[in-house]
């Protein structure tokens, strides 16, 4: 069974940091681009960042300079380090895997999501 499991969400104050994890099971993430997406209440889902199998990275303008995506192949896990968090970063964060590249490509596998809440 192919699964992605996110963890690391929580409640943090303005300016704080969180690190989200996305662990793959049943398949190797090395063969996929892994992306992070978020959806706030009443808003459409948006792409945040992705990392390719060759470690190329992409970031949404809203998170550039604050978020960093990384990988640990040995653990079959991808991370999203989020610094200088703002209330507008509050959302459910999902990781997903795509055979293509980029935040606009087709993502075939999705995790269940983890809530991030930033208080002011």
What does this 3D model show about the protein?
By secondary structure, the chain is an all-beta fold. The protein has strands at 3-7, 10-13, 18-25, 33-39, 46-51, 57-59, 67-72, 77-82, 91-98, 109-110, 114-119. Strands 2, 4, 5, 6, 9, 10 and 11 form a seven-stranded mixed β-sheet that branches. Strands 1-3-8-7 form a four-stranded antiparallel β-sheet, with no helix packed on it. The mean pLDDT is 97.
Please describe the structure with a list of short key phrases separated by commas or semicolons.
4-stranded antiparallel beta sheet; 7-stranded mixed beta sheet; about 120 residues; mainly beta
Brief overview:
By secondary structure, this protein is an all-beta fold. The chain contains no helices and eleven strands.
What's the layout of helices and strands?
Blueprint: E1 3-7, E2 10-13, E3 18-25, E4 33-39, E5 46-51, E6 57-59, E7 67-72, E8 77-82, E9 91-98, E10 109-110, E11 114-119
Parallel strand pairs: 2-11
Antiparallel strand pairs: 1-3, 3-8, 4-5, 4-9, 5-6, 7-8, 9-10, 9-11
- Count of runs of 4 or more consecutive helical residues: 0
Report the uncertain regions.
none
Largest sheet: 7 strands, mixed
Portion in beta strands: over 45%
Q: Rough shape? A: globular
Strand elements, count: 11
Order of helices and strands: EEEEEEEEEEE
The end-to-end span amounts to: 40 Å
Fraction of residues in helices?
under 10%
As a whole number of angstroms, the C-alpha radius of gyration is: 13 Å
Determine the structural class based on helices, strands and strand pairing: mainly beta
Question: On the 0-100 scale, what is the average pLDDT?
Answer: 97
